[in-house]
Amino acid sequence: MNRQEYAELCFDAIMQLHGEDEFKEMAKRLHQYQLNRKKFSLYSATLPNYLWVTKRGGGVATRVRLLAEYLDTARIMEFTGKVRHFEFQLAYVPPDKFFSELPRLDNTLSEITGHQRFFRGLACINITEWMHHTREEYFRKFIEYISSIGERVLTVFYVNTENDRIVKDIEYALSHYIRFESVWLQFPRARELMGYVETKYFKLRGFELGRAAKSLLEESLERLMQSDNFNGYISVNQFADDVIHSLLTSEITSRKITADMIRGFDKESDYAKRLETTAGVKNTIGFGSPKEV
Predict the structure, then answer these.
(1) Residue 83 lies inside a defined structural domain of this protein
(2) Which one of 20, 143, 198, 285 has the minimum C-beta count within 10 Å?
(3) Are 108 and 215 contained in the same domain?
């Protein structure tokens, strides 16, 4: 398989994500950019940075990895260093304290290249702690720093919110210093999530979900997603793990799963009610993402 064929596989992997229409549209624009550059033998142009908006646990790490892999294999970006991308959480620092985040970010860039050369790649920076502080001086200094490294680092700013006003404030602050596109990472609907659960947890183990069983789990996922404590894929994975564990510790005689075999996980079960208050609370730091099982 040559590099171009591998790049197409990376692009197809993005297109196969559940939901994520805006993310896919972003990838399609990059794909068209690649095709046009090759068709007309053009030099690369400077790519925009990105502002990704999503709820907590929206699978940012997976999307950054897929994006970096595609940009690299398609030769849209030049990458140097030990990694293609890294994740960084920009901690809030009040105006009366020393702004230690810029030295910490600079050190991170140096460390991932072995302190020998400049990092070229993707920086995924969680700015959620700053979403109410975008008019403060330290945030301006941070954006100026990002602007200064823009020729070699493509930055994906990432914020956990669904508030339009907050997003507009962030966009206003960013627009004074850098080029960027805003992308809303919509979390998949319950039906799409059910496809993820069925593939990664049941089919992989040779189980077949009956229609009623699939409907039961989809309704439970719908209820779970409405919980204030819902933590994206972290919560979904926890739910699926519990269902599989229950099956493997029961006296099942067939690989075809019926609704009766998983009745303890329906939307009105004690389990579903309990999960509404505990979903994903074990791990709320970092980037939630689909996991391979």
Answers:
(1) yes
(2) 285
(3) no
**pLDDT over 70 for what percent of the chain?**
93
> What is the greatest pairwise CA distance in the chain?
66
Dump pLDDT digits (tens) for 206-264.
999 999 999 999 999 999 988 878 888 888 999 999 999 999 999 998 999 999 999 99
- In the chain, the N- to C-terminal Cα span, in Å, equals 26
Q: Quick one: 17 and 119 in the same domain?
A: yes
In sequence order, the β-bridge partners of residue 184 are 53
* Domain interval for residue 274: 190-278
Place of tokens 């068209």: 32
pLDDT at 293 over 70: no
User: Residue 173 forms beta bridges with which residues?
Assistant: none
User: Of residues 286 and 125, which shows the higher confidence score?
Assistant: 125
* Token duo for residue 123: 């920086």
Hunting for tokens 């009956």 — which residue is that?
Answer: 210
Helix-strand-coil percent breakdown of the chain, rounded to 5?
Answer: 50, 10, 40
Amino acid type, 4: Q
Q: Which residues, listed in sequence order, are joined to residue 121 by a DSSP beta bridge?
A: 153
Sort strands 49-54 and 180-184 into parallel, antiparallel or unpaired.
parallel
Q: Is the pLDDT of residue 204 over 90?
A: yes
Into how many domains does the chain fold?
A: 2
Could you give the strand order of the β-sheet that contains 121-126, starting from the edge strand earlier in sequence?
Answer: 85-89, 121-126, 153-160, 49-54, 180-184
- What tokens were used for 246? 């229950």
Q: Among the three residues 125, 150, 184, which one is the final residue of a domain in this structure? A: 184
State both tokens at 58: 């929206």
Per-residue three-class SS string for 192-215: HHHHHHHHHHHHHHCCEECHHHHH
Residue pair 287/52 in contact (Cβ under 8 Å)? The answer is: no
Residue 32: which residues within 8 A CB-CB, separation 6 or more? none
Residues near 256 by beta carbon (within 8 Å), at least 6 away in sequence = 207, 208, 210
